[in-house]
Amino acid sequence: MAMNLIFRFFFNILKNLIFKRPMEINETSIISMRVLPTDLDLNFHMNNGRYLTIMDIGRTELVIRSGLHKLVIAEKLSAVASGININFFKPLAPLEKYELHTSVLTWDESWFYLKQEFIKDNQIKASAIAKVIFLKKGKRVKPDYLLKKMGKEVSPPKAPEYFQSMLNSEKGMINLVKEFNKKS
């Protein structure tokens, strides 16, 4: 991670712990940011890879503000993004202000699915779904277990129709990779 991202990351953690109110797991985290010169690619707009790195900051904010970070520390868990499906619609220009919206889309027996959107002037510039798992000593920790430990007895939100299509596509890709790896 580049130095400017480390500063952004730790600045955001401190800001969350000191100044921002806690939030419920079903609320949306919103971070206001600006496209820095170090975020640019050769086309002078935000680099595609930078979106993914900034999304880490959004997911960290959600974990902190929802209180999940306390459980992560207490149980020595690690959070891993195992897949991200992102679509870019319009570029973000140098020094442009934007917001990163992060929310829990749904979860299943193993995974949390987070929706993350880059928004400028009420327009979605990029939209992603991140598949996140929590691990303890290398083993999966079920989302329902984590939520119960946090005192949240909630059911997963109903996912939008497009979500199932995305999951089916992902399963096809996983099968393709397994077949390829068997041949190697």
Structure at a glance:
With 184 residues, this protein is α+β, with helices and mostly antiparallel strands. The chain is 39% helix and 29% strand.
Mean pLDDT across every amino acid position? 90
* Structure classification: alpha+beta
- Total DSSP E strands: 6
CATH architecture: Roll
As a percent range, the share of strand residues is 25-35%
CATH homologous superfamily placement: Hotdog Thioesterase
Q: Please summarize the sheet with the most strands.
A: 6 strands, antiparallel
Shape: globular
- Level of helix content? 25-40%
The DSSP helix count reads 5
Describe the protein.
The chain has helices at residues 3-18, 48-65, 68-74, 143-149, 161-183, and strands spanning 29-34, 78-88, 97-107, 112-120, 123-136, 139-141. The protein has 184 residues and is an alpha+beta fold. It has one domain: Thiol Ester Dehydrase, Chain A, CATH 3.10.129. Strands 1, 2, 3, 4, 5 and 6 form a six-stranded antiparallel β-sheet that branches. Strand 3 (97-107) and strand 4 (112-120) form a beta hairpin.
Question: What order do the helices and strands come in, and which of them pair?
Answer:
Elements (H helix, E strand, L loop, with lengths): L2 H16 L10 E6 L13 H18 L2 H7 L3 E11 L8 E11 L4 E9 L2 E14 L2 E3 L1 H7 L11 H23 L1
Antiparallel strand pairs: 1-3, 2-5, 3-4, 4-5, 5-6
Helix pairs in contact: 1-2
Q: Keywords, please?
A:
184 residues; alpha+beta; Thiol Ester Dehydrase, Chain A; 6-stranded antiparallel beta sheet; 39% helix; 29% strand
